[in-house]
Here is the input.
Amino acid sequence: MFKDITKRMKARMDYLESIDKRDRTDGTQKEFRLRQIPPETGRFLALLASSCPSGDYVEIGTSAGYSTMWLSLAAKEKRAKIKTYEISAYKIKLAKETFDLSGINDYVDLIEGDAIKNISSLGEIAFCFIDCEKEMYGKCWDILSAKMVPGGLIVADNALSHYDVVKPMIEKAANDDKFDCLLVPIGKGELVCRRKSV
Ligand SMILES: C[S@@+](CC[C@H](N)C(=O)[O-])C[C@H]1O[C@@H](n2cnc3c(N)ncnc32)[C@H](O)[C@@H]1O
Here is the structure.
């Protein structure tokens, strides 16, 4: 899977990593910052997603498509397509550029607009990465947890870096008998929740 990172994908990853790094120090306003995952989280997500059962792949919060590139490695292997949701017109333009330049359009459906208004219509989900505004995580959990196939995974970013804001969702997940959950100290802290098979 990681051997499938093409030169054009690597070039786009390197470019977005440099923009993200610059954003964090030069005073760029929040709405224009990429706020993307670090590469080690990308590898972790790709490994998890490639180990999921069949079903839809979903990402809430595309930004410029950096995490989507990592997930596309798993989607390619599983012959799946990632439905990724983004609300900002600025980020949508960058994400389209990313998918064109990295050559992953076959593995991605970019859905423009408010994810909360759109995800209720999703069918059965095998893998979901939640990486939008942290205040939205609880609502995302309410909608998505009911749609997960047995063995499916919900992964939420920033579970350690923004623990206080993400806590309501962490508690919902921990108290849900249908899921096994673990907070993994990689990157910003990934909450991994697996829908039990029985
Ligand atoms: C932390 S960034 C995502 C970073 C991206 N996953 C990555 O690692 O490359 C969060 C993104 O969620 C988007 N977002 C916020 N609220 C949203 C909503 N209601 N629906 C869809 N996207 C939303 C923001 O515009 C922003 O681009």
Q: What stands out?
A: The first strand starts at residue 56 and ends at 60. The helical segments are 7-23, 39-50, 66-78, 89-102, 115-118, 137-144, 163-174.
